[in-house]
Amino acid sequence: MRVIQPRIQHTGIIIKSPAQLDVMRQAGRVVARTLEILLEAVKPGVTTAELDEIAEESIRSHGAVPSFKGYRGFPGSICTSLNEEVVHGIPSSDRVVQEGDVLGLDCGAIVDGYHGDSAVTIAVGAVSDQVARLLEAGEGSLNAAIEMVRVGNRMGDVSWAAQEYSETRGFSVVKEYVGHGIGRDLHEEPAVPNFGTKGRGILLQPGMVLAIEPMVNVGTWRTRVQPDEWTVVTEDGALSVHFEHTVAVLDEGPEVFTAR
Questions:
Q1: In what helix (H) or strand (E) does residue 249 lie, and over which residues does it extend?
Q2: If 124 and its partner were Cys, which of 78, 101, 209, 259 is the partner (CB 3.0–4.6 Å)?
Q3: Range of the domain at 162
Q4: Is 41 within 8 Å of 56 (Cβ atoms)?
């Protein structure tokens, strides 16, 4: 295992070297491939525990380690969030995917000590026009935010783009959970909110790596945590979607390490 020492700014934000960025590209590719395999495996009747097993096998087959398993006590290799579940759903043999469900899959992998992190939400079978629009709003929010990951922009530009895309389409953006920096630690500085004001916040600099992850709801943006102390659900029980990529800030523009 290579040991690469990071350079740390006074703000606590870790600027990655070219060698570190290359390792993170590898981690991102493992995550992307695992999500591709999971998307092929999702069908009515599969349990979220079975999807978790598929994910762990895929991650380890690439010589990587699941980022989430055991993280602060989390029991799964992926998060599987159904319908009104926003994030952090725990895989279970009792959770059977049904026709018409909306399923969020959040996956992380460690390669040589560095993390990749990505999430996607899909419809299982036929869904209503509203659900289709919700899925488009969630993915579109992520893409809009990524477009603002430019050297010289500020975090508020990224956050504003995610919020504006969803809210102009009639949906709400979760404010109680945000994205994050990523690298040797799964969660690093800076926080990456999905709501904000253009021109505000920290300056984006080459070598920063961000996990951008809009969570978009049909109803209220407010959430609550289930008794399992992990699963986050919408306060009003309405549907939610979650999309995420690991993105590097580079002189030539954003690079999505977890692109599928």
A1: strand 245-250
A2: 101
A3: 13-256
A4: no
Read off the tokens for 100: 């018409």
Distance CA 39, CA 31 (A): 12
pLDDT, position 3: 31
CB 4 within 8 A of CB 22: no
**pLDDT the model gives residue 106:** 98
Helical pair 48-61 and 18-41, crossing angle rounded to 10 deg:
140
Cα–Cα dist 232/229, whole Å: 8
CA distance 115 to 27: 6
Residues 75 and 225: beta-carbon distance below 8 Å? no
Taking the CB of residue 125, how many other CB atoms lie within 10 A of it? Answer: 12
Q: What is the pLDDT of residue 1?
A: 27
Helix (H, G, I), strand (E, B) or coil at 91: coil
Q: Is residue 39 part of a domain?
A: yes
Residues of the chain short of pLDDT 70, as ranges, are 1-11
Report yes or no on 1 lying in a domain: no
User: CATH number, domain at 92?
Assistant: 3.90.230.10
**How far is 75 from 63, CA to CA, in rounded Å?**
20
pTM score: 0.94
